[in-house]
Amino acid sequence: MTQEIQSTPLDLSALVGSRICHDLISPLGAIANGVELMALTGAEQTPEMLLIAESVEAANARIKFFRLAYGTAGADQLVRQSELNAIFSALSRSGRITFDWRGTNDPLRQRTQFALLSVQCLETALPFGGTISVSHHEGQFTVTGRSERLRHDPALWAMLTDETAVTKVRPSDVHFFLTAQMRAEHQIALDIEVSDAEIKMTF
After folding, report:
1. What is the pLDDT of residues 134-146, one digit of tens each?
2. CA-based torsion, 152, 156, 159, 162: positive or negative
């Protein structure tokens, strides 16, 4: 199915993101299938094999996360709650951050995309670990990051709510720029509360 390329930088970045994720998911899936087949044939579950299996699971979850966060999103598309639960469960097993996604229904893809970009902003603020929770009900989202060692960069976070804020964005912080662009383009009402150990985003 072909898709007309839109005119905004946000649309172009979404198409690039979709293409990269599409090209990576197949080889990762092949590695996962190979590991599973080796286990079925009775191969010894060595620490090396377990490490490969865990790494592939984490990479698959992160690619699925990126596909939803950076890929194209139709206005009426939905994301299955079960898919989000699986992604966040796998991510929780692979790093210092514990993730939790709770919702009462399958959310809209565009709102989910903004929520996942928000999650990445919170990941940047939790370099030493912590918890990130997402809850939504009838289209209203709350995304919260908690850590005893929170790192909050005021310049980056100002971009999300102040269109006049200007700061140099490094490649590792590109999600702040895209979150700000998406908020402005879709006129998302975003509120951010910051305390010593918590950042809460509601929209």
Report:
1. 999 988 999 999 9
2. positive
